Each structure stands twice: as C-alpha cells, then as structure tokens.
Amino acid sequence: SKQAVEASQAFLAAARKYKEAVKQDYVSFAKEKYEMVTAGRSAVLDAENSLQTWGWLPGWTESLENDITASKKRLADLEKELEGKRESSKMMLADAEKEIKAAEEQVELAFHIQLIPSKNQVG
After folding, report:
1. What is the three-class DSSP state of 1?
2. Cβ contact 12:100 at 8 Å
3. Which of these, 33, 40, 101, 120, has the minimum number of CB atoms within 10 Å of its CB?
4. What does the pLDDT read at residue 21?
C-alpha cells in the first residue's frame, strides 16, 4: 500500500539522519579532543624545555619532572579517550549502514507489493 511505502521511506530517512548524527558527534568530539591533545603535547615540550633550562636550580628538577609526568599522563588519557570514541563511532556507523540497507530493501519491497493488484482490483 501507499502507506507502507511512505512508512518505509520515513524509516530510511531516519536511518540516514542517524548516520549523519553519529558522524557529526564524532567530528565535534574529535575536534575538541585534538585541540586538547595538541595543547597537551605543547605542555610536555614546554615542561621538558623548562627542565633543561631551569633544572639546575635547587628543587626545580623534581617539580618539573612531576609536571612532565602529569602532562604525559593527561596526554595518554586523551589519546585513549579519542581512540575509544573512534572505535565506538565506527561500530555505530556500521550499525547505521545495516539499518539503511534494511530500510532500502523495505522501501523496495513495499513499492513492489504496491504494484501487485489486490483481490478487490482483480475482476
């Protein structure tokens, strides 16, 4: 029926919209995290440069080494978080692709069924 075709087309549109939302979510998340990763890398380099420049001062070496260690840990955590999001987004996109394929098949099926004359129309 025409309603079945429209319903399956609406489902297909929703599946495509979901896929785009997953992509956009990942892109905005990744952009924010990449900026943080870049800043984190700069912080590590700055702390390492400070250690070379000021490490000879009494008490500074340990403090600067602690800064370097903390910066490296934050950086590793960010990179791990980014990788986790990348993996989960890939799985969600794969699921969305399956939904879209199923919806496309449903649209095609509903369209073909619509073309078959019903008993009422025959005779």
Report:
1. coil
2. yes
3. 120
4. 94
Q: Which residues contact 106 (CB under 8 A, 6 or more apart)?
A: 8, 11, 12
Cβ neighbours of residue 67 closer than 8 Å, sequence gap 6 or more: 47, 50
- Ramachandran region, residue 59 (left: φ > 0; alpha: ψ -120 to 50; beta: rest): left
Q: d(Cα 87, Cα 28) in Å, to the nearest integer?
A: 15
CB 44 within 8 A of CB 75: yes
Is residue 123 predicted with pLDDT exceeding 70?
no
Q: Which among 82, 76, 72, 81 has a CA at the least distance from the CA of 46?
A: 72
Burial string for 44-81 (b: 16+ CB within 10 Å, else e) reads beebbeebeeeeeeeeeeeebeebbeebbebbeebeee
